[in-house]
Amino acid sequence: MGELVEVIAKALVDRPEEVQVNEVEGTQSVIIELKVAPEDMGKVIGKQGRIAKAIRTVVKAAATKENKRVVVEIIQ
Question: Per its UniProt record, what PROSITE patterns does this chain match (predicted)?
């Protein structure tokens, strides 16, 4: 699922080389931390958070197959 977030984020930003994804896996949940360049933060979040919500929805759908809970955090 980290790879999925990385592919989506790299397609959205101007500086794809600065996209970093870190996965922290627990027993029931997975936390995916997405880090992008400061000037690309708006592109990943979108107006009123719509793009961020869409990314979370896609990842959540992929996680349902594995019966895991996924949290996507966008950090600086």
Answer: KH_TYPE_1
Domain count, the chain: 1
Query: Would you say residue 7 has pLDDT above 90?
Result: yes
- CATH at 46: 3.30.300.20
Range of the domain at 12: 1-75
Longest dimension (CA), the chain: 35
pLDDT, tens only, 21-47: 999 988 888 999 999 999 999 999 999
pTM recorded for the entire structure: 0.89
